[in-house]
Amino acid sequence: MGLAEKLRKLLADEYGINSDEELIKAMEKQKPVDLGIFTQGAYDENKKVG
Predict the structure, then answer these.
(1) Residue 20 confidence (pLDDT) above 60
(2) Are 48 and 42 a contacting pair, CB within 8 Å?
(3) Position 37 confidence tier, pLDDT thresholds 50, 70, 90
(4) Could you give the maximum distance between any two Cα atoms of the chain, in Å?
């Protein structure tokens, strides 16, 4: 079983998502994830930004 098949099985078993259409609808309902904490350096109040 390839990676795509494993992912489709996991989506079906864990989330009840059985089609591309259901996956797209679920993704559209998903709240955005703020990845800023992973991309910004340590805060230094003495350092100018920009």
Answers:
(1) yes
(2) no
(3) confident
(4) 54
Burial 6-19 (b: 16+ CB within 10 A, else e): eebeebeeeeebee
Which token pair is 46? 């003495």
Q: Which two tokens stand for residue 6?
A: 């494993």
Tell me what pLDDT residue 43 has: 64
Q: How far apart are CA 5 and CA 8, in angstroms?
A: 5
Asked whether the beta carbons of 26 and 17 are under 8 A apart, the reply is: yes
Residues 6+ apart with CB under 8 A from 26: 15, 17
Q: CA 10 from chain center: how many Å?
A: 15
